[in-house]
Amino acid sequence: MKVSTRTGKRIKPHYLMLLCLGLAGSMLAACGTDSVQNASGQVGTNQGAAEVPRTGGNAQEGPQGEQTFKDDLGHEIQISGQPERVFAPYLEDSLLKLGIKPVAQWSNGNLGHSYLQEELQDVPKLDFSGGAPSSEVLLSYNPDLIILHTSNYAGDGVYENYSKIAPTYVFNNAAGDVEKSLETLGQLVGKTEEAKQALASYHQKVGEAKAAIEKKAAGKKVAVIRFAAKGVSVMGGNYLCGYVLNQHLGIEMTKLTENENSLNLSLEILPELDADYIFVINAYGQGTDRMKEMTESSIWKGIPAVQQGHVYEVNDEYWLGSGLIAYEKIIDDTVKLMAE
């Protein structure tokens, strides 16, 4: 520590002795604080210093700002500073909301999240159709943080291999509660304020949409029918677009899905479909034949919603998406179709 004096002023001997005693006392007191200098000259915390939990999260503060997080599977990871190269397949929507572009994006074959491609056009795709990419492939992207959106991705030794490359955080199911997972992502990547702002903006949008729908379509029921390669189903109000409509916008779903996340739909069940509005999804363009078969049937044409012209094919790109960007687009569509 340097002691400076004013130019031209001389310190008297007895003042100098008092000053030295004061400095010695300060140095002894500093040894009792939570910063000490080790043999390599680096500053660290005392061994007896406790980690400080962060408010509202699962992080703990460690040496030099290092944070410890526990994921949904019980793994503990340490993150120092703000990650710059993030790999979070199927969480690209939420990352973009936080202002982050990943080092690579999820894809099924060569198809990524179509509604995000304008923002992700320069981000390479990694094909997950055959399972998670090998650690050798991932290593080439040099990530400093890996986030897996579902525990299904972590099996078969994937977690063990990925965690050797970079700290790896695993959600049990990030799509189950997009708002909560966005908050966690914000903590992991050092973007907590951005997460709060994104959620506040979304909640405002939800409030405005609810008011518009209540004014024009109060008490109306909806059904979301998904036509896919493997079959036809009615989506319930607990996940993806159904969650947005039911849990966020407060729209009642058809009674067919009261106790179901998804219900297989056949021509036999079709007459029981009690909905004032029907939203149709052709999943990834693979349900065309099934959709044609059902919608051209006399049973379909006899449904009240069909006769009233309240059937709309919606964009599968984001109606099957998971993240606030997708949710906001779903809300825009719903307001336009039900309240304008």
UniProtKB/TrEMBL annotation:
Compartments it resides in: Cell envelope
Chief localisation class: other
Annotated region described as Disordered, given as residue ranges: 41-69
Endpoints of the signal sequence: 1-29
TM segment ranges: none
Keywords: Signal, Transport
Domain Fe/B12 periplasmic-binding: 83-340
Family listed: Belongs to the bacterial solute-binding protein 8 family.
Name of the featured protein: Ferrichrome ABC transporter substrate-binding protein
Organism for this UniProt entry: Paenibacillus woosongensis
